[in-house]
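Section 3.1: Structural characterization of target chains.
Under the original work plan, the team committed to producing a structural model for every single-chain target entering the pipeline before any wet-lab resources were allocated. The record below documents one such target. The sequence was received from the expression subgroup and is listed exactly as submitted; it comprises 178 residues.
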Amino acid sequence: KYKNSKNWELFYNQISGFKDKPGYRYVILVDRTKRKNVPADASVYEYKLKRIVQKTKVKVKTNTAWDYILKHKWKLIQMNGVTQTTSPVYMTFDGEKKRVTGKSGCNNFFGGYDKSEETLVFKQMAGTRMACSEELNELEHQFLSLLGDKAFKFDVADQTLNLYQNNKLVLMFGAAAL
């Protein structure tokens, strides 16, 4: 951004004497001189650092698989190798409170979680206790038995959240809008 510019623009040249460091924003003062006999693929100007006026540390935003997980609702699409075509089961994660909530069939469930780079641990899981059809009761029981207070390896691939135990895929969820 030049001194009198309102908008930022891309800079495709180099500034002699200046080496930026990721994670910092700089305000710098440079000398800009017009070059003579400029090749067709080069800039008309040459830039040389006069001084660094300001160097401010900025938070570097990284997009991780976990960032992707937090932005979606996760609908159950497979459990223990069986495809769930019309399953009402889903879950969402709250990154700040480290809470998980969702629907386990006809009831709601909730609890906490801890996560590391590849591991997701569900803890203190609980739920509501409404009367359900026999089919939903069975689905709910199977799902909550798999999930309750257990540790999983996880990954995200092709818009699916995959949970593994003993290197076996046990739960697969598809990404849906929140």
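The mean pLDDT is 91.
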